[in-house]
């Protein structure tokens, strides 16, 4: 029974990680393709809190960091992931907006 319990716990752990990965993958694809003019050409929709704060029902955080002006950063979330333990998966993509490159980071718990 102990071995069966161990195998079940390992499989459950991998299932959770897989779900986090798939949720994050879908979310970064959505915000860098669906809400943009073209692939990764950001629009004002990407910086609209009414859209970005209500994208999914799982805990996530989206950070847009201007690579030309490091002090310019926009954060949207439905939960504060970065203050939690390191139990999140991070996806990164560089996109263009208004003459600058932005690092788009999606954190999913």
Notes on the structure:
- The chain is α+β, with helices and mostly antiparallel strands.
- The protein has one domain (12-104).
- 34% of the residues lie in helices and 28% in strands.
- The protein has helices at residues 2-34, 49-52, and strands at 60-66, 73-77, 89-97, 100-108.
- The protein has a four-stranded antiparallel sheet with strand order 2-1-4-3.
- The model has no long low-confidence stretch (mean pLDDT 87).
Entry keywords:
single chain; 4 strands; 109 residues; four-stranded antiparallel beta sheet; alpha+beta
> Main sheet: which strands, in order across?
2-1-4-3
Secondary-structure-based class equals alpha+beta
* Helix and strand run: HHEEEE
**Number of helices, where a helix is a run of at least 4 consecutive DSSP H or I residues:** 2
What is the terminal separation in angstroms? 31 Å
Please state the CA-atom Rg, rounded to the nearest Å: 16 Å
Enumerate the spans where pLDDT stays under 50 for 5 or more consecutive residues: none
- What count of domains describes the coordinates? 1
According to DSSP, the number of beta strands is 4
Q: What characteristic shape results from the CA principal axes?
A: elongated
In terms of DSSP E residues, the strand content is: 25-35%
Mean pLDDT: 87
Q: Summarize the main sheet.
A: 4 strands, antiparallel
Overall helicity: 25-40%
